[in-house]
TrEMBL record:
Residues 5-253 form the ABC transporter domain. It comes from the Bacteria. Pfam families: ABC_tran (PF00005), BCA_ABC_TP_C (PF12399). It comes from Psychrobacillus faecigallinarum. This is ABC transporter ATP-binding protein. Signal peptide: none annotated.
Amino acid sequence: MDPILEIKNVSLQFGGVKALEDVSYHINRGEIFSLIGPNGAGKTSMLNCISGLYHPTSGSILYNGQEIINMKPYNRTALGIARAFQNIALFAHMSVLDNLKLGRHSLMNSGPLSGGLYVGKAAREEIEHRKKVEEVIEFLELQDIRHIPVGTLPYGLQKRVEVGRALALSPDLILLDEPMAGMNNAEKDIMSHFILEMHEVMDITVVLIEHDLGVVMNLSDHIAVLDFGRRIGFGTPAEIQENPDVIKAYIGEETVI
Ligand SMILES: Nc1ncnc2c1ncn2[C@@H]1O[C@H](COP(=O)(O)OP(=O)(O)OP(=O)(O)O)[C@@H](O)[C@H]1O
């Protein structure tokens, strides 16, 4: 076991709502890990705690053994944690290329002023920046749409660019919040292929929130199941499929696991 992320007894409360209650699990380096659970179970809240948008009421989050619970989101990005959002967080009027370049902005050290003063350093950074963005464009097969405004693209492609924005940050750990929501089966197959490639070719650890349990069972090495903010299952897809608490939680949704 080589955990990249350890979630220890994390709780999160909004007034009277316990979004997360004493949740613990770990994610191994290089695996595809899924977080599943019925609507309102606390999945997005958990990703928000990992990326730093929410601050847990109690508990601990270790990334490569380092406590990150009090760290600002941009510092977590610099450590190698990137996030693609459920509701696409792109600039609709800007091109695919510009959105990906902007995605990397937080990693740039030389701002506009230093860019003017230290041409060499800024120029080197710009070259590195472009190289990474071109790599992502090639990897996600976005070449033909690189100059098209994101807002005019079909939804499935916008989701792919949203994943690309996170990938452009060169993460070690990528958090994907429902990257296949609203997609047809063919589009889901394409996204599944990219997720597998991220894991196999780029060696990125993937955390996936996904409602399509077929996709989850096919892709995941391990799964954690949340229900009403509590962890009710944690294990391999085969273990999760046989977990009576998980089956019970999903019967309410008329879903066959
Ligand atoms: N910012 C917030 N303020 C108040 N309550 C919140 C906030 N964010 C989440 N919650 C509550 O926390 C609980 C868990 O919500 P969360 O969005 O994490 O669930 P989820 O499993 O991602 O759901 P879904 O599958 O529908 O996206 C819900 O009761 C939700 O209303």
